[in-house]
Amino acid sequence: MAKFIKDGLQSKSEKELQIEVSNDDILSPYYYPPPEDQMRQREVAEMFSTTVQTIINWSSSGKIPTFRIGKVPIYSRKLLIYIARNNRNLLKS
């Protein structure tokens, strides 16, 4: 199991995470991550054990969704975990 998935499940059980935000909520075109769910590029790179440039490339190619606050790219932790669970080729072994 990837480091970030383990970290996410340490504080709350998987069932509690599903209750907090359903897949329908995070997949809605109107979803915007709340402040406690927002991540910067460096944090996302650490989460996926990759470089910031890879995160920029994934965002540009549409592999991971990006939100913007002005010019600053923001990522949703919950949405990234959901995508990683369904797209295992983003994870490094």
Automatic annotation (TrEMBL):
Superkingdom per UniProt: Bacteria
Q: What name goes with this protein?
A: Helix-turn-helix domain-containing protein
